[in-house]
């Protein structure tokens, strides 16, 4: 999106504000489709947790996507957005048996990642098709918090527990129609990914009625100029060839599935915030904005990098700033960052704000959450109104101590 478009939206809808470029989402979706166009059957299931606004889900449905969900609420959002149950996969972790059964009753594809739940579910619902999430014990991901395929991870059934897994399936007579893995986010080395895929292929030979193999996702996107990213074109070429050969060996045409979240929406997102104050200290120049980690948590949670531009002075002389929020504790978006000279009232733009940004937003400090706008086909759509204090207190039950009788 162009600078003047973003400034216009900040002026029209106020700040802070999340803006999503629908054309970029389309481009990323088509890029993934093209990378794997040698596969006869490809299914892309968007990871809802990255950005769960219903209008974004509807846009992805229009592109042909399915959904990857991790909670019953995400399943319900998908159904509200018009997705058919068979186009939704549900991969929870540590949830109750009751929730899994409730989701299964909706006709959604169940993906189970631990032996206890697998045995319980198989004993009660042996005819319901189930996918199994395998932990290949391969470390992949750019941060320990988002690397989920290693040996100490809470996710997936260990590849070393395969004998136990097969015994449960034999004892319950359950139907396994898919096998799944997810190694982590921000994958750089596709050879590591392909190595994990080989482990999954080997495990797949143990199951005779598979319909699909799900390789998760975790493709890294660039966060700054000249940043490295996952080469999905090379991965597509190598994995497609191996997958097609495996299907021949298996004796059946299978569907290759992916679950991209960040890859599809990260670069499409812009977070706009106004500078409230420029504060010079003995060693630092702070630019304090009208937001905080209540709206954009990733820098404080993961130490993640978001490129920051001063839209109000895009060609100005660069100076060093620390960009901070208004939350009453350490609340830093960037330290000692070169940014075009900042003045109070300027609009700053945070790039890569489409994934795990609004979805992690909160009402900490009793601050309201921002509005969201979708820019699509040269038109702005308000897809979430800015909250008000009424939204914050709507579910609170207020006790009137003036009228309540005192207790001793």
From TrEMBL:
Keywords linked to the UniProt accession: Amino-acid biosynthesis, Decarboxylase, Lyase, Lysine biosynthesis, Pyridoxal phosphate
Pathway(s) it belongs to: Amino-acid biosynthesis; L-lysine biosynthesis via DAP pathway; L-lysine from DL-2,6-diaminopimelate: step 1/1
Swiss-Prot/TrEMBL cofactor(s): pyridoxal 5'-phosphate
Pfam family, one: Orn_DAP_Arg_deC
Residues binding substrate: 298, 302, 329, 356
Positions where N6-(pyridoxal phosphate)lysine occurs in the chain: 49
Major enzyme class: lyase
Domain Orn/DAP/Arg decarboxylase 2 C-terminal: start-end pairs: 18-354
Family: Belongs to the Orn/Lys/Arg decarboxylase class-II family. LysA subfamily.
Role, per record: Specifically catalyzes the decarboxylation of meso-diaminopimelate (meso-DAP) to L-lysine.
Classification via HAMAP family: LysA
Protein name in the entry: Diaminopimelate decarboxylase
Protein species of origin: Flavobacterium suaedae
Phylogenetic lineage: Bacteria, Pseudomonadati, Bacteroidota, Flavobacteriia, Flavobacteriales
């Amino acid at each position: 999106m162009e600078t003047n478009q973003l400034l216009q939206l900040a002026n029209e809808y106020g700040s802070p504000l999340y803006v999503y470029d629908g054309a970029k989402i389309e481009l990323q979706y088509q890029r993934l489709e093209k990378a794997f166009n040698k596969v006869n059957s490809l299914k892309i299931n968007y990871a809802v947790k990255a950005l769960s606004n219903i209008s974004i889900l509807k846009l992805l449905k229009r592109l042909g996507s399915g959904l990857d969900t991790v909670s019953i609420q995400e399943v319900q959002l998908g159904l509200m957005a018009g997705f058919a149950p068979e186009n939704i996969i549900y991969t929870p972790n540590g949830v109750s048996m009751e929730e899994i059964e409730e989701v299964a009753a909706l006709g959604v594809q169940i993906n189970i990642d631990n032996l206890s739940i697998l045995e319980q579910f198989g004993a009660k619902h042996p005819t319901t098709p189930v996918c199994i999430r395998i932990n290949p014990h391969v470390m992949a991901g750019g941060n320990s918090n988002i690397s989920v395929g290693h040996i100490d991870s809470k996710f997936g059934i260990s590849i070393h527990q395969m004998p136990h897994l097969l015994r449960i399936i034999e004892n319950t007579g359950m139907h396994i129609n898919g096998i799944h893995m997810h190694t982590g986010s921000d994958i750089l080395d596709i050879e590591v990914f392909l190595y994990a895929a080989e482990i999954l292929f080997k495990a797949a030979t143990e199951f005779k009625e598979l319909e699909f193999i799900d390789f998760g996702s975790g493709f890294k996107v660039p966060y700054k100029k000249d940043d490295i990213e996952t080469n999905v074109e090379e991965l597509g070429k190598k994995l497609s060839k191996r997958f097609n050969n495996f299907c021949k060996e298996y004796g059946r045409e299978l569907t290759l599935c992916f679950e991209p979240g960040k890859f599809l929406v990260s670069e499409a997102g812009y977070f706009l915030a106004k500078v409230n104050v420029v504060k010079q200290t003995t060693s630092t120049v702070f630019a304090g904005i009208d937001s905080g980690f209540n709206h954009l948590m990733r820098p404080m949670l993961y130490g993640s990098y978001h490129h920051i531009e001063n839209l109000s002075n895009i060609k100005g002389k660069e100076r060093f700033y620390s960009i901070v929020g208004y939350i009453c504790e350490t609340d830093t978006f960037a330290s000692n960052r070169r940014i075009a000279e900042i003045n109070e009232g300027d609009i700053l733009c945070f790039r890569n704000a489409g994934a795990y940004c609004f979805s992690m937003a909160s009402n900490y400090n009793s601050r309201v959450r921002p509005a969201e706008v979708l820019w699509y086909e040269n038109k702005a759509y308000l897809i979430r109104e800015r909250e008000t204090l009424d939204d914050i207190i709507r579910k609170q039950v207020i006790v009137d101590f003036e009228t309540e009788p005192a207790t001793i």
